[in-house]
Specification:
With about 475 residues, this protein is of the alpha/beta class. It folds into four domains: about 1-165, Alpha-D-Glucose-1,6-Bisphosphate, subunit A, domain 3 (Alpha-D-Glucose-1,6-Bisphosphate, Chain A, domain 3, 3-Layer(aba) Sandwich); about 170-280, Alpha-D-Glucose-1,6-Bisphosphate, subunit A, domain 3 (Alpha-D-Glucose-1,6-Bisphosphate, Chain A, domain 3); about 285-390, Alpha-D-Glucose-1,6-Bisphosphate, subunit A, domain 3 (Alpha-D-Glucose-1,6-Bisphosphate, Chain A, domain 3, 3-Layer(aba) Sandwich); about 395-480, Alpha-D-phosphohexomutase, C-terminal domain (TATA-Binding Protein), CATH 3.30.310.50. Helices cover about 35% and strands about 20% of the residues. The chain has helices at about 20-35, 50-65, 80-85, 125, 140-150, 170-185, 210-215, 245-250, 280-295, 310-315, 330-335, 360-375, 380-390, 405-415, 465-480; strands at about 10-15, 45-50, 70-75, 95-100, 110-115, 195-200, 220, 255-260, 265-270, 300-305, 320-325, 340-345, 350, 395-400, 430, 435-440, 445-450, 455-465. Strands 1-5-4-2-3 form a five-stranded mixed sheet, with helices on both faces. It has a five-stranded antiparallel sheet with strand order 14-18-17-16-15, covered by helices on one side. Helix 1 (about 20-35) packs across helix 2 (about 50-65), helix 9 runs parallel beside helix 10 (about 310-315) and helix 9 (about 280-295) packs across helix 12.
Length: about 475
Amino acid sequence: MNIVHFGSNGWHARFDEAFTPQALYSVALTLARIYEAEKTRSTILVGYDTRSQSRMLAYVVAATMADQGFYVRVLNYAVTTPMISFMMSDSSYALGIMLSGADYAGTYGGVVLRARGGGLVAANIWSQLDGLVEQAIPDETQQLITALTNHEIALEDLDHTSNAPRQDVRSLYKKEILTFVKNMAPHGLYRPLTVVLDYMHGATSGIAAELFEALGCKVITTRQDTRDDFGGVHPCPIKPWTKHSYEVLRSVHADVAVIYDGDGMRFSLIDNEAQQVPLHLIAPCILDFLVRFCGERGRVVTTQASSVRICRLAERLNCETSIVPVGYARIADELTERDVLLASDEYAGICVPGFGIWRDGILGSLLVIRYLQMRNEALHTIIATMSSDLGNMDYIRKDLRLDPAKMQTFSTMLPGVNPASIAQKTPCAVSHADGLRLAFDDGSWIMLRPSRTQPTVRIYAEAPNLAERNELLRAAYALAQSKL
């Protein structure tokens, strides 16, 4: 029997292994019990990404919830996860359920939950889903699933008596996000740009281009058709999956290429010289734009595994910085204070709370484009200058996989580890808040963090140059191995 492994970021697994209709039925049935009090007052919103199996499993979730007496709105087109968060700002919805494999390969499915306001659901909700065992789907529920799949029942029939709005989600989202971006810096000279948008066959297709054109950009789109196998790549906007993006940018001599992941939560950039923009310089670009060009003020939130460069820029711009343990749930806790200007995780997941309390790849990319337009400089030049100003740093993350017994040993030993020196460096700060993080006077640091979901140790290192970074990485590996 397959078991559900749910966390704050949802659950992801292979379709041909654990991510089965029976497992999703168990998840939906448990959610129906948790949200019992909302049954006659609110609607459950269900969305899905471009995977055909995601749509089918959305029908499983919707039919199960409807069979339990809930009003359910199932979207009849693929959307991004941020768009589900956006719709959850409407109080008519009690819960948003998104079926998406995110940036995993096409063989994977996933489900994430969004609460009212668009943020993550509380831990006391997803913890009740963790450890569920799949169960057989009753005949009456299966009949409803089959009827939905065969279009014998209209999706609208599942929520025909609810008060939830029926607006087109894509149109409403595009209108609101464009208004927000234009209002951030309504006055100025905006130079025209040629932009390549690489959708990687994901859910941002058909959404982003219109927004970039509204900002005065010439847009060339690529990989915009939907494919279950994502054209043989992972819909993850990093090397080696971005090779196609480089080729298109060179062929059209574009100013920048924007590459989105499968569900629109993240993006990456390739500059006009066909160089990948370091993910850790994306958030500094947006922060610089918000403060210097838009006159915004507020706190910056980032994680312990993020580059020191975002904190350096925040200090120069007189912005308070809060550094939290890894995991967006920790960032989300900070957003309740309502003084946050920008939040970013270690993988350039960008949140601008002025628009919404979720990570949004389309919003982040639009703000970068506005920044380029107002700087009137090539992206390659901007990144080179920023890197020099903030101090050149070389960042890396590697994983050390262990068997479960050794993983338990490592996790037990780590809180007591406090080395006096490592790689001939003496730590100036030691933190056990999220594994072990050692910081040094020159800004370099290493971190060893047990994964919360896998038998893996995450090892991070950042230093002013490649040689020093690699030396720290080797020392971190040796330290981890010595505790097994």
